[in-house]
UDP-arabinopyranose mutase (Vanilla planifolia), 357 residues
Amino acid sequence: MAKGSGPLLTDELDIVIPTIRNLDFLEMWRPFFESYHLIIVQDGDPTKTIKVPPGFDYELYNRNDINRILGPKASCISFKDSACRCFGYMVSKKKYIFTIDDDCFVAKDPSGKEINALAQHIKNLLSPSTPSSSIHCMIPFCEGADFVRGYPFSLREGVPTAVSHGLWLNIPDYDAPTQLVKPCERNTRYVNSVLTIPKGTLFPMCGMNLAFDRELIGPAMYFGLMGDGQPIGRYDDMWAGWCTKVICDHLRLGVKTGLPYIWHSKASNPFVNLKKEYNGIFWQEELIPFFQQAVLPKDCTTVQKCYVELSKQVRDKLGKVDPYFTKLADAMVTWIEAWDELNPSGPSTVLPNGKAK
Ligand SMILES: O=c1ccn([C@@H]2O[C@H](COP(=O)(O)OP(=O)(O)O[C@H]3O[C@@H](CO)[C@H](O)[C@H]3O)[C@@H](O)[C@H]2O)c(=O)[nH]1
Ligand SMILES: [Mn+2]
């Protein structure tokens, strides 16, 4: 929250939570989240009731709702994987999205002060990014700092920030092999910095503490086809991050990473994760060069056009890695079609099954 004022963007930001659990974690976030509208995407068994603490304004969508709203296009929304959260991005009507996992809690900064992660994300999104330069030793656009000598004035205006990627203390977001060999490792390092990821650089985007400008980059935030019936899991956010970064670079949009921190409390089962991740650990050796070499034509002037072009390149170049990527390329197109159907120029009548509380 800005000094001396209430929470910002309360009518322009939705909080999207994917869940298979009751949402008691919200109690800890109440001071920071209660003024915002929540979009809860319930994964797994739609007959299970998800308990939401009283006092929150929310809409809840389960698999039956997703199928009802999207019809055959629901095939692009993952089932039994946190990737389902991207449905919340699609049905939101707000300019900004903040998405958080239900095992993420309020962290404390080194002074012991509780971190309002949402306020920091908003600050990150509302200030420009500087992707056309190497990492600064100073963080521009914040009090008491400015561009250092030698930084071209022509670049100092920066570009609009599309993504704010937060980090986590305690349980690190390791892949299964790393978690297996380092089961007790915890992240205790608090780095007081927000950096723009330079143009041409990819990054491993984790979906547990993430905010973005939905109007600038929303259609690129497809959390790829994972979970039930798919040969891969826990790469949904990575896929979205790689696609998003290539498109942000092309459209001159910025991606920031660093503050805010949240406290990640749950270590998922590394053996289960290994089964989900196995192909991803293998395929990522091909995926990174693919995204590093991806070039989007000049006539790709919207996120949708960029994304459909990327899907063509996925089909052409990754389809030979595994037939899964042909299916994923199709799902990418379906996602854009569904996005445009639900987000025509006017409002769309997407009714959730949970009444707004
Ligand atoms: O089948 C499922 C499983 C989980 N969820 C919800 O998704 C998030 C993340 O779940 P969890 O914290 O259990 O998983 P992690 O291994 O810690 O994190 C992974 O999730 C992604 C980051 O968001 C990434 O793939 C990994 O870091 C929770 O809210 C669960 O309730 C689900 O919807 N469906
Ligand atoms: Mn987690």
